[in-house]
């Protein structure tokens, strides 16, 4: 299956960026169940219902309003407004930032207009952080493709001067990430493998190399003074993290909504902090395609449901 994943992955990830594929797939008679396996729903109220259920189950959450690569200032403003309404509703579940808020929002700077103007996106992110801070909600800035990494980390670095709790994502498949982990070893860092189609010049391609890089990066974060967040469904990574976390004061596990639910429940039962990433919104296409690319079984599930109709 890893041979299949390796050969299909770039194809699916290319389709994730293709407007023609998006047009075809978002208009295909997809059953709600297929998309809803990975996405909480289209409306904010769908996300809030899922959040409430997960919190009742002892999970923590990070809610993402789907949208990326926004190319006009009006849409970026609309995204900010949606986040402000979301934070207000999530604040009812939280109340205070100390010690660890159960609710968080995740945001992509490209959804705040970073492709138009990084300063505008940074100001939009600042507005979101200020609202989140007073609602007792955390914010983590997602990682996108490698061409955005420098700008994203620069924005996060400057926002952390005012919002030291602000988190960001580092992607272990990038060759640069060990040094980024050293630079951010006092920060709240979500470490993931990375979900985009990256060239070999900047990224490890083989799964074993990505996992090895992940463990080196996690080791750096565990020796730092920050708050490592292990965002992975990989049993090898989760077992290694359990060992490395010995002696680390604050850390958490993170997984995506709809993926390895029994494992999420098992970690909660063990007394661990598990934060589930809950995406919602109508712009589900690229997110959904990245999930399909991660696992041939997901692609098969998707194709069966399309063909069955
Ligand atoms: P893999 O090696 O891909 O998978 C290991 C095992 O986990 C599989 O064998 C399978 O059992 C299970 N599994 C993995 N994926 C799936 C799936 N889709 N469906 C069903 N089972 C699966 N990436 C970014 O580039 N930027 C981000 O900002 C970002 N944020 C993330 C936030 C969270 C909370 C998480 C969990 C992931 C995030 N990712 C992000 C995605 C990440 O980079 C990986 O693409 C994704 O998590 C798959 O890698 P893995 O470590 O789970 O291991």
Could you give the topology of this structure?
Blueprint lengths: L1 H15 L2 H9 L4 H5 L7 H13 L3 E6 L7 H19 L11 E5 L10 H18 L2 E4 L7 H12 L6 E5 L5 H7 L4 E5 L14 H17 L3 E5 L3 H10 L7 E5 L4 H9 L4 E7 L4 H10 L1 H12 L2
Parallel strand pairs: 1-2, 1-8, 2-3, 3-4, 4-5, 5-6, 6-7, 7-8
This protein binds flavin-adenine dinucleotide (FAD).
The site of flavin-adenine dinucleotide has 25 residues, from strand 4, strand 5, strand 7 and helix 12.
Bound molecules: flavin-adenine dinucleotide
Question: What is the helical fraction, as a range of percent?
Answer: 40-55%
Please identify the top-level CATH class of the largest domain. Answer: Alpha Beta
Number of strands: 8
Secondary structure tally, helices: 13
**Using only CA atoms, what is the Rg?**
18 Å
Which fold name corresponds to the CATH topology of the largest domain? TIM Barrel
Largest sheet: 8 strands, parallel, barrel
Strand composition percent: 5-15%
Low-confidence stretches: none
The class by helix and strand makeup works out as alpha/beta
Count of domains: 2
EC number: 1.5.5.2
Enzyme class: oxidoreductase
Protein name: proline dehydrogenase
Pathway: Amino-acid degradation; L-proline degradation into L-glutamate; L-glutamate from L-proline: step 1/2
